[in-house]
Sequence to fold (493 residues):
Amino acid sequence: MEALFLKILNMSITASYVILAILLLRLLLSKAPKKYSYILWSAAAFRLCCPISFQSIFSLFNLKIFHMPALSGSPVSELKYIPENIGSMAQPTITTGISPANTLINKLLPEATPMYSVNPMQLLILEGMALWFIGMTVLLLYSIVSFIRLRLRMDHAVLLAGNVYQSDRVRSPFILGLVRPKIYIPFGLDAQTQDSVLTHERYHIRRGDPFVKMFAFILLVIHWFNPLCWIAFRLMSRDMEMSCDEKVLSLNAGIRTSYSTSLLSFAANRRFPTPSPLAFGESGVKQRIKNVLNWKKPKVRITVLAGGLCIAALIFCASNPSVGSQGGSSAYWFSRLQSFFSFSAESDHSDSAFGEALPGVPAGSYRSSSCVYMNPLSSYSPINGDSGYQYTISDDHFILQYRSSDAEYILAPDIWAWSEFPYSSEEWEALFFLSIGAVSLDQPEDILWLKLSSRYELLLTDGGLWLVQLNENPQMGKYIWSIYVLEPEDSAP
Fold:
């Protein structure tokens, strides 16, 4: 259940970017037939229900504002902003695809601490799951009750013909039902208005809009916590209605004035029953009237351009960034640049910007090859000594980056130079929780020490390069959380 919840969150984040893109694209299509704007929302629906997608160079997520290489994997091609093991991380990290937002959000995430028997992040996930489930339940119950009430109110409707019913309780036409939808209209409509209204509603049915509306509502129930989904649902419904209005006008352009007047009268005398996902009628009347009055039969050139733009937009929004195509990504160019300088250094045997940042420690990318110590209160068990982070050492920075996201922690020591080991044997042992699993040091006087920050220290020992992570709280004071052995990326197993 937790994995499903995290997958829903990841899909919702991806869909949020797509919805924002569609809002901008709708402006470009403002003069085009509304059926194209209506079609665009299928990209958002795809992102809300499908976690994987095809890869393309022509993708929204290839834009320079995104840092997506860590999110896109092959061959699954699934964008993961929230890692599946976030509940067991000592330092939880997520990514939004935008680096400044990552830094802000990750600072708010609770760290694992000995004060709790479980990781606080796990509790936060459980609370989120409970709230998500309650929200879905409330929306589903509301829709079911609304549909039943509406159906009971229409029991006394009079059959006009086929699936068309009239009722004195209806002031605005609407469709009720999914498998055998019925059209309900008010009494007293003149022949022309009634013909236009029925053409509009029958086009809804012929195009399958009741199924579309139902599917869209289900997605809204699942992603109810995302405000952009509510905006998308409302605008999609409006585009649906306006595209049907244009269909009616395309059959008889001379009824624009009377048709807009009937829309206004429906809105002014509305006594529409309780709404339901299986019953939809007039919505966005003001925008619809303006669209009807301004409607003109589109030229072939406009139709072709709008259709081409719509197809391109669907690919643009529905595709994931192709592996290696993140040319606008700083991480991509950094790795290319690093490879180039490394090659030059090997070929020319000369100094370069990627030479030795510290005595005995070459600059470059590192990863953990083994876990020397993990606090017994931690719920995280590193597999094969892998911390899940990639480490980068440059001339004046130490960078920690979680490999399943683009969240980075950049440390810049005040003095980028080794010092003598600052702890006595007793002080070192006191840093371990109840001395359980304390790591003994044979010759501490031969160890070099570098303080990266208040939470991280580097040790250069006979056993290699060690990264020490420390925590601190009022109850326990300063204590060691983990120790990993770091090795160059190309030599680590």
In short: The two ends are 33 Å apart (CA to CA). The chain has two domains: 2-156+187-320, 330-488. The longest strand covers residues 477-488. Confidence is low (pLDDT under 50) at residues 72-76, 271-275, 324-355.
